[in-house]
Amino acid sequence: NAGVTQTPKFRVLKTGQSMTLLCAQDMNHEYMYWYRQDPGMGLRLIHYSVGEGTTAKGEVPDGYNVSRLKKQNFLLGLESAAPSQTSVYFCASTARTATSSYEQYFGPGTRLTVT
Amino acid sequence: GENVEQHPSTLSVQEGDSAVIKCTYSDSASNYFPWYKQELGKRPQLIIDIRSNVGEKKDQRIAVTLNKTAKHFSLHITETQPEDSAVYFCAAGPNTGGFKTIFGAGTRLFVKA
User: Please, which residues 57-86 of chain B have a Cβ atom closer than 8 Å to chain A?
Assistant: First the structure.
């Protein structure tokens, strides 16, 4: 199993450009999340999904959109990138089971720089 | 909503000593408390978690304690080793799929050989 993978690993954008980050998981997990990680601020939830075709806002959703057309994929879009969106982006997934740990499995991260 | 505060932000210990990281949370409905370790340039990985019906949980050199009345929980690492050097994140949330889990800001632990 590859676990959780993210594409791309690095990206540099100019202000105003758009891009899509792709997250894929092969563990048949129902829940998927997008976080951003900034120095001294931990992991902040951008958007999440509890199943195929559903998405919801997290703590810091402004400037981002998401889609979950297939259970295994969760896409994060930036329509008009801003320097404040320079960050490391992590995708994660969790199984929806009542008895096991709700461990979040993280992808390797995407380092995005907006100039 | 939930707010999680984590202290200290940086911790430096001598190899073999113990390290303690403390977190407080605000939402009394939270009942799931995981801890993640993130090595430099790597992804966060779960090292231990505890649910609110348990006061303490241990796994080899790491242990977590929970005080629901005071709304705080702590990570204890004994006999620290250089490979324990990393950033540690606490988190709190309801006992569901994790989508309302809120993370602390992280503690950077340095273990000096």
Answer: none
Confidence of residue A1 (pLDDT cuts 50, 70, 90): confident
Beta-strand ranges (E) seen in chain B are 4-7, 10-14, 19-25, 32-38, 45-51, 56-59, 62-67, 72-77, 86-92, 102-103, 107-112
Share of chain A above pLDDT 90, in %: 83
Q: Do the chains contact at A42 and B96, CB–CB below 8 Å? A: no
Count interface pairs A-B at CB distance under 8 A: 64
Count of C-beta atoms within a 10 Å radius of residue A7 = 13
Which residue from A40, A113, A6, A45 is spatially nearest to B105, judged by alpha carbons?
A: A40
Contact A103 B89 (CB under 8 A): no
pLDDT tens for B3-27 read 899 999 999 999 999 999 999 999 9
Question: Does the beta carbon of A5 lie under 8 angstroms from any beta carbon of chain B?
Answer: no
Most A CBs within 10 Å: which of B103, B107, B108, as the mutation test of the A interface?
A: B103
